[in-house]
Amino acid sequence: MAPKAKKSGSKKKKITKADRLKQIQEEEEKRQKEEEEARVKYEKEEMERLEIQRIENEKLRKLEAKDLERRNEELEELYLLEACFPEAEKLKRDDRFLSQWKHYIQCDGTPDPSIAQEINTFITLWKEETNETLEEVIEKSKLVLNLIEKLKLILLETPPYDLQGKNIIQYQGSILELQELLHLKFNRATEILLRQASTLADLDSGNMEKVIRDENVTLYIWANLKKNPRHRSIRFSETQTGFEIPRILATSDIALRLLHTHYDHVTPLSPVLTPSQEHISVVTDFVKEEAKSVQAAVSKDLQEENKQQENESNSIHEEETKTEEQGDVKEQMCPVQEEPETTKYEMEMKLLSETVSAAQELLLENAFEKPDFLEEDEVDLCQFTTLGGVYHLDILELPPQCKPMKGWIIVEILKEGLQKYTYPPETTEDLETENVFPPIEVMLEVHENVIFFENPMVARWDAEGKHWKTDGISNVSYKSKERLITFNLETFCPVTLIQDAHINMPYQSWELIPLDVNKVLLTVTTVFTELQIQIKENLCMLASIKVNNKKHSSILEEKWMTPVSFIIALKKAGLNIFPTGHSHLYVVINHKHPSVEVKAYRQIALLSSAFAFCWSKWNTACDSKKVIFQVREHLLKEEPIQNPNWTLLMFSGDRAQSLKINESSDAFSEVLKEETEFHSTLYHMVKDFASQEAMREVRHSNCQFVDSVCHMLLSTRLLSYS
């Protein structure tokens, strides 16, 4: 057996209990020392932090105190600058009166639609005119449509507080009468044409076909004279418009009419924006208070003046009798009854200023809930909008044809006039309706001046319920390149194409840049389009439009219009970037308090002649009582800058401040930018870093220009919908 190997190395020394206690004690002392050092360090850092915070708070307190100290002064200066809004409204009123006067002295025979007597006389006289051809009706329709547009503009352009209820009823009543009469005239003219269908028959088919094109209407008429059961496919020459009719119609005495009105006289009129009783009482109270204060001030000034005159008179005429003195006083007191012209003007402008402010706030009022009275398949006109006009589809009974006899033309005139052919008939006598009376295939050309960002939907007019519905329509297909829509319709009736009214909301970004003296460019970018709008004085123009990043031509380009007319035109073209009171119920928005928005838009408009503004991503990070956007000075003489430095401003309506963060910062913070102060207005905020030339440009801005920019900002609501 081999011997045991010796263990290499010596044995480890055994740690005694005393050593272990000593080691534990050392570790405890070390831990306590580290904790003490950490505590001291923390306390030191905390003291430093608190000191820094105290200094910052003290600094903020001083800045806030400074802001409060000069608040009244800044607000007074802003009030003087914002006098441009009532001044612009006064100019608009003067323009309306001047327009009425020019129309009066022109004496061209056309009525003033705002005067009930004139428009009623026009309607009565036109009703009495008979035997008008389609060409004559179409020509007269231009005047009628112009009168309707004028009435609609009066309702939209007149401030709500200046519109009386009886006037609204009068104007809307006149609009409806003109619309109904115009359609009646088209029906009568169609009847006159169809009486002559046999004389206008096509040599090849033996049927009559006629197409009349105009800037406001396109009329397609087909009369079935041959009643050939094989002739079921109808295509109007040089168009893509047509029908596929069932056999029963191909063998009937009928005429098909498609009256495409490029306007919409079917949809009920939109309610006129009117202030609530609460708003009216606020404005009324303000007017009363202003009247009292102005009257008191005037009386006080005049009484002091009279007292001074009386004292002077007494010193000069001490020897005059008491009766003469009383007579003098009476004569001297007479001027108290007269108000100086300047004071009258000031009071008028104050009243106008309050009216304009209230009207601007009314534009931003939001509805509380969606309409809850919709029927099944009914189109919600708060969510959708009709585009491209209305296609009036009618199957008509062919009237008796005129016959030549011994040099005379004899025609039987039916007392009941033009009659519609009922399809499918109300009683089918146990016939299989689907087989005998199948849906009619309709092919329509989409209006060339309308933009659809998605495939349009088709809606039919329900005459009984007085609304648009989507039932009774099937097999809808749309060819965007050919701008042709095809669908099956169970029965002929007015149809229209609809699109989501909020398809371009919310916006992705926006920018407002000065172009020239009293001229700016507003760019609004959405998911589908980029719109560039120029604004100068009291006019707006569509400068350019891109659809899916490609240049798109529009009939509206290079056409200057008033802001209200411009907004109407853009909506009709499918370029809707103008939210309504219900829009927030259909779009996820960055809600901002209306009073903050109004103040922001007014002050941005004031500065727009010398400063550029644009969207900020941080606007969604702050609460609803604050708005955030970027601003920079932009003088026309300067060369364009590749990467301009923008200042980030936060505004709460009562306070403006420059933020320390910028667009590329990682996190949101409301910390004030170094070496900047609080101000009560945006005007005084930008004044801190702006040049004297820029501020001079602002002070000399045209009042109509500022008002137009403000109206466009209020109408687009960029701060809430982007």
Automatic annotation (TrEMBL):
Which regions are flagged for Basic residues bias?
A: 1-15
Q: Region Disordered: what ranges?
A: 1-40, 297-341
Q: Where is the IC97/Casc1 N-terminal domain?
A: 30-230
Biased composition (Basic and acidic residues) is annotated at 16-40, 301-331
Q: Which gene encodes it?
A: DNAI7
State the species of origin: Moschus moschiferus
The entry's family comment says: Belongs to the DNAI7 family.
Q: Which InterPro entries match?
A: IC97/Casc1_N, IC97/Dnai7-like
The protein depicted here goes by the name Dynein axonemal intermediate chain 7
List the GO molecular function terms.
Answer: beta-tubulin binding; microtubule binding
GO cellular component: a single term: axoneme
